[in-house]
Amino acid sequence: MSNPGGMPTPPLSAFFSLDGRYHRQLEPLRAILSEAGLIRARVRVEVEWLLALADEPAITEVPQFARGTIDALRGLVAGFTEADAERVKAIEATTNHDVKAIEYWLKERFAGRKELEKSAEFIHFACTSEDINNIAYALMLSEARAWVILPAIDRLVQILVGMAHAHAAMPMLARTHGQPASPTTLGKEIANVVHRLRRARENAAAVSLTAKINGAVGNYNAHVIAYPDVEWEVFARQLVESLGLKFNPYTIQIEPHDGIAELCDALARLNTILIDLDRDVWGYISLGYFRQRVVAGEVGSSTMPHKVNPIDFENSEGNIGVANALLRHLADKLPVSRWQRDLSDSTALRNAGAALGHTLLALVACARGLAKLEVDPARLAADLDANWEVLAEAVQQVMRRYGVPDAYEQLKALTRGRRLDRRQFAAFVRRLKIPQTAKKRLLALTPAGYTGKAAELARRI
Q1: Does the model's pTM come out above 0.70?
Q2: Of 54, 136, 324, 366, which alpha carbon lies 20 to 30 A from 197's?
Q3: Least trusted range by pLDDT, from 213-217, 409-413, 437-441
Q4: Which residues are catalytic?
């Protein structure tokens, strides 16, 4: 299908799923991390650099701008449109250089404004392309993290907290190695995930995104030769920090991307927790612990009408796989550059949006799936009642307390590889030579009642 006039590719013609099947779900990220978003971020950096130059008394060739001119310059960023981005791309078709195209576009926009025309040659003054790009990417990732990814994590955590509290005391058979184990509660198992996700979220939020604006090889060579009296490192630090980023004073031509690598690592670790949740919930649905609410008109199978598949959790799991492949590649690749620079980071960085896009899809899909779940208390209770042998742990600890020899071995002989019912359990307890009060407490015990502090822990999350 044709794509006339350079307009965005229609979703059905998109080569990648993020711009095709999932394009509507990714609108929040598209404005920040798309090609147009990158161009807009570059424009912002060029504008702020020029404004900073105008504020430096030693650079008399760029006099301080009037308030209206400052507003007009920042208005170029605030009002940046798709048509503006297309014009930049048209210029790039001639320059074959994406950052130089920004400079020429700004000069076009300065035409007719005498105050700006006088300073036009100071656009991109002493900068290498990476000075603009590293700040632009740091700004984009910072905005995407703060405005889209962290809120999506928070929404998921909020759903999980609600489930943990609602089912804090709902007893559930635990499974270690896939086998029946000491009981827990459904709410406590969800609380475990909440605690992990909160920690991972804090780590992702805490990563400092660093930036520099120090010239071709990081030494302010051009800056110093043109204006030796300017404290260029102080100047650069002030600009970077004014944009909400952390200043990196030591770089080669490129900012080494250690901050971005740390963010990628942090998001990949969070995603790993999410995939653990996806698979566990998938398993609980398979066991019948959860039912899924039926959506009118939805089809589970093209041939089996009865199916209600856990597709949201499968979708989440699949997207995490793609996201983490990209995130971990970026984390490994970006900090490595031959000598003072090679260009391999440039093409790799263009996939940061895809990595965050698949992460967002995974978060949204998991949250959507959780919202459809209904607990089946009868199924949970039936599983517990069918596995009285899980109380062997409780009995042997009481036996140990009261000095009964070979407590573990006795319970092993009774229960290992066997199912135990209430009658068999009670018969064993009655034969024990332990105080009557302890015996009475054990005889009152059921698998559903053997959950320790699980409910308390779940309510506290």
Answers
A1: yes
A2: 136
A3: 409-413
A4: 177, 301
